[in-house]
């Protein structure tokens, strides 16, 4: 029995040729789709290795790659549907593009569409990119790990994964510590009593900051010529119970700045204790009246 005779056989009134042809076409569609997806991923990886484009950076490439892959799967699925008897119109409508918007309106919620559009604004507006250290509304701080079609993934300083919808990020106040220069100024603020020697307290704070290994000399050439101090220390507030003194300390990045601030608060407190400079704290007087029984 040759192949033609085998294909002409019928089982329960159905020719073997029909399901075999369907399976062969479905397999070809699958292989072609997977091949196209692999090719798209390869081209994006290659473009990242060979080109340093400001437009097609890592963030943009990752986002466009996802859209391209999803589009290929939709096209492959539409072609597969067109092979099924009775589903030809559905497959053809998707291929023609008329069914894509109908499917989006019918099955995607307004929130999902909003996240998708917000993702486009993030990718092409570039308020941040993958690898940037950002702070959102003074609540979430971390490094951008991934930007998907619906949400942004942030690795926090505690190495926790934070997943935030793109629409929420698009309406948040974003502080990007990586967008320009990475060096950052840390405010070291300590309150001293009104009886304290301010010049002495300010000198101690400057000395402690100068001793820290993470301190960076951020002075300009002009400031260096004028012998401006590396660390600026000023009185910034006369409070109800304390005078607040601030030292401006620069570090290479936000991580070093945070660690430096923690170290300096400890060392300044210990130095103030040795130098008898009081750091006031609020306290309450409790008055108990004895009730005289008549």
UniProtKB/TrEMBL annotation:
Annotated Gene3D superfamilies: 1.10.287.1260, 2.30.30.60, 3.30.70.100
Compartments where found: Cell membrane
Membrane-related topology note: Multi-pass membrane protein
PANTHER family xrefs: SMALL-CONDUCTANCE MECHANOSENSITIVE CHANNEL (PTHR30221)
Membrane-spanning ranges: 20-43, 63-84, 90-108
One Gene Ontology cellular component annotation held by this UniProt entry: plasma membrane
InterPro entries assigned to the protein according to its UniProt record, in alphabetical order: LSM_dom_sf, MS_channel_C, MscS_archaea/bacteria_type, MscS_beta-dom_sf, MscS_channel_2nd, MscS_channel_C_sf, MscS_channel_TM-2
Annotated Mechanosensitive ion channel MscS C-terminal domain residues: 188-279
Species the sequence originates in: bioreactor metagenome
Cross-referenced SUPFAM superfamilies: Mechanosensitive channel protein MscS (YggB), C-terminal domain, Mechanosensitive channel protein MscS (YggB), transmembrane region, Sm-like ribonucleoproteins
Classification lineage: unclassified sequences, metagenomes, ecological metagenomes
Gene Ontology molecular function terms on file: mechanosensitive monoatomic ion channel activity
Domain Mechanosensitive ion channel MscS span(s) in chain numbering: 112-178
Protein name (database record): Small-conductance mechanosensitive channel
Keywords assigned: Cell membrane, Membrane, Transmembrane, Transmembrane helix
Family in the record: Belongs to the MscS (TC 1.A.23) family.
Pfam families: MS_channel_2nd, MS_channel_3rd
